Amino acid sequence: MAALNIKKGSSSHSAYDLRDSHSDVERSHTLAVIVENEPGVLARVIGLFSGRGYNIDSLTVAEIDHKGHRSRITIVTRGTEAVIEQIKAQLGRIVPVHEVHDLTVEGAAVERELALFKVAATGEKRVESLRLADIFRANVVDSTLESFVFEITGTSEKIDAFAELMRPLGLVDVARTGVAALARGV
Question: Could you give the CA distance from residue 166 to residue 160 in angstroms, rounded to a whole number?
C-alpha cells in the first residue's frame, strides 16, 4: 500500500535532464485541517478535491473545540510534491479553514485507525481467527456460535494485514474509521 508510483512520461534518465528526478514521485500525505464547525464546510473541502480530480484515501472529521466551534478534518491523499502543495494552498484559501498542516512533512506524527471485522468461522478456522486476533492484539467485541466481531486499532498497514489474513478464514464485513493523526511532541 505504501509503494511509490512514478507518473507516466517520466522515464527520461538522461544526465542532461535538469528536472528534479523526485518531483514526479507520488506518496501518501496526511493533512490536518482545522476548520469552523459550520454547515457546508466539509462539502467545500471535498468539493475542492473532487473538482480538481484529487483522490481522498481516508477522511475523518470531528469537533475538537466545542466552545470555539472548531473541527479537525484529517485527510490522507496521494500526489506529487507539487500536487500536495497545490492542495494545501487551495485548502488555505477556503474561508472557514483556520490551519492546514501536512503531518507527513512537518515531523513525526502518530497515526491510528480503528476497524471492526466480522468473521464467520467454525472449527479450525474459528480457532485460527482467534489466534491471529491475539497476535494482532484485536479484541473480540461480539461473539455468536458462528461468528466474531473483532476490534483492532493501529496503522492502516496493520489493519490491511489483518484483513488479508482474515479473508480466507471467513471475513464477512469490515468497517473502518479512517486515519486519525496528531503531530508528536509539543
Answer: 10
Name residue 99's beta-bridge partners: 34
Which residue segment(s) compose the domain that 52 sits in? 24-102
Rounded to a whole number of angstroms, the distance between the first and last alpha carbons of the chain is 30
Residues of the chain scoring pLDDT < 70: 1-24
pLDDT of residue 140: 98
**pLDDT value of position 5:** 35
Distance between CA 154 and CA 115 in Å, rounded? 9
Question: Are residues 88 and 114 located together in one domain of the fold?
Answer: no
Q: What's the CA gap between 78 and 133, in Å, rounded?
A: 30
Residue 30: exposed, middle, or buried by beta-carbon count in 10 A (0-12, 13-18, 19+)? buried
Return d(Cα 185, Cα 90) in angstroms, integer. Answer: 27
- The model's pTM: 0.77
**Among 102, 121, 147, residue at a domain's last position:** 102
Of 102, 136, 171, which residue is a domain's last?
A: 102
Q: How many domains does the chain have?
A: 2
